[in-house]
Design a protein that fits this description.
OB fold (Dihydrolipoamide Acetyltransferase, E2P), 2 domains, membrane, Carbohydrate ABC transporter ATP-binding protein, CUT1 family, ABC_transpr_MalK/UgpC-like, four-stranded antiparallel beta sheet, Rossmann fold, transport, globular
């Protein structure tokens, strides 16, 4: 297991980058704690896999260093980093049995045969492949082969880190849930440092101790699921985390008052006078309908009943605002105003969260 340090790390696929836009991975400075589980979360092309490949040694960064337990491994090959990596698509030895595929990393390091037998049986149970241990991998389905890849990545107990690059893409939905649970159990049992790349917020939030949200080659926030939900540090985090995501509206802010399309909102705390592009962000969970005179005037477009609650889609001067309403809540035609719970309001300037001023 290892603490992983990203020191002034950046990468460009161009030979002579000249501007920030030339970098697929913009400058990072982070310490990732030994033994924690991290999820790299973001949309396609945001730099997740680039960062993972730098950590594994498949890619050397354009600048900066990467350290394992304060040892510089920036130019060290993958074989010297003592990591296990599972890729998006299955990588197995077709001519070997499932048993031999799982045992291969241990045999390659000269492990005791009795230990190999016991450990392979444990992993086979974990991935639900005990009944197929003696079958050749060649004839198995893609999801079965990916389970073998996962198992082979998890079979070693002495690795510095376990790296997963969207490993559940080809797995059926029910098995995804089971394998996520098993990965979490494995982490609790052995305390490996785990890094899991995904574009699926459910995978990230259920797997990780800390979620690393990436956007346009940057880490825009690293935090617990609760922190990402309650205090998105960037509008992308608010938009990407949650279903539906955070409502974001253009505003002007002066002290403890915001004005949104001519409607004044009291914020309950002062934010000074932020410059740049100012926006107010409120999650649907902190938004409610009202038939009074306060709040933003809206037109309800539709109501979606999703079982546990209702999602109200409302129009505010051409911008959609989403409201989470309780399953049993009565929604009448007179409810043409939206009010915010001030505890859930965030202010943003040029997409970054503005902290309230301390009196």
């Amino acid at each position: 297991m290892a603490k992983i340090t990203l020191d002034n790390l950046a990468h460009s696929y161009l030979p002579n980058p000249t501007s920030d836009d030339d970098y697929a991975l913009k400058e990072l400075n982070h310490d990732w704690v030994d033994g924690e589980a991290y999820a790299l979360l973001g949309s396609s092309g945001c730099g997740k896999s680039t960062l993972l490949n730098i950590i594994s040694g498949l890619l050397h960064p354009s600048q900066g260093r990467i350290l394992f337990n304060d040892r510089d491994v920036t130019m060290a090959p993958t074989t010297q980093r003592n990591i296990a990596q599972v890729f998006q698509f299955p990588v197995v030895y077709d001519t070997m049995t499932v048993r031999d595929n799982l045992a291969f990393p241990l045999r390659n390091r000269g492990a005791d045969p009795a230990y190999i037998k016991e450990r392979v049986q444990q992993i086979a149970h974990m991935i639900g492949m005990e009944a197929t241990l003696d079958r050749k991998a060649r004839g198995l389905t893609a999801d079965a082969k990916q389970k073998i890849s996962l198992g082979r990545g998890m079979v070693r107990e002495d690795v510095n880190a376990l790296l997963f690059d969207e490993p559940l893409t080809v797995i059926d939905p029910h098995m995804k849930w089971e394998l996520r649970t098993q990965l979490k159990s494995l982490h609790h049992e052995f305390g490996h440092t785990m890094i899991y790349v995904t574009h699926d917020q459910t995978e990230a939030l259920t797997f990780a101790d800390k979620v690393v949200v990436m956007y346009d080659g940057r880490v825009v926030q690293m935090g617990t699921p609760q922190e990402l939900f309650e205090r998105p540090e960037h509008t992308f985090v608010g938009y990407f985390i949650g279903s539906p995501g955070m409502n974001v509206l253009d505003a002007t802010v002066n002290g403890d008052t915001a004005v949104v399309a001519g409607t004044q909102i009291s914020l309950g705390k002062s934010f000074g006078t932020p410059g740049g592009k100012v926006e107010i962000g409120v999650r649907p969970e902190f938004t409610s309908l009202s038939d009074g005179n306060d709040g933003l005037p809206v037109t309800i477009k539709r109501v979606e009943d999703v079982g546990r609650h209702k999602i109200v889609r409302a129009d505010f001067h051409g911008t959609e605002i989403n409201v989470i309403a309780a399953e049993g809540e009565n929604i009448s035609p007179d409810m043409n105003r939206i009010v915010f719970d001030m505890a859930g309001v965030n202010i943003y300037a040029d997409s970054w969260r503005v902290a309230p001023l301390v009196a």
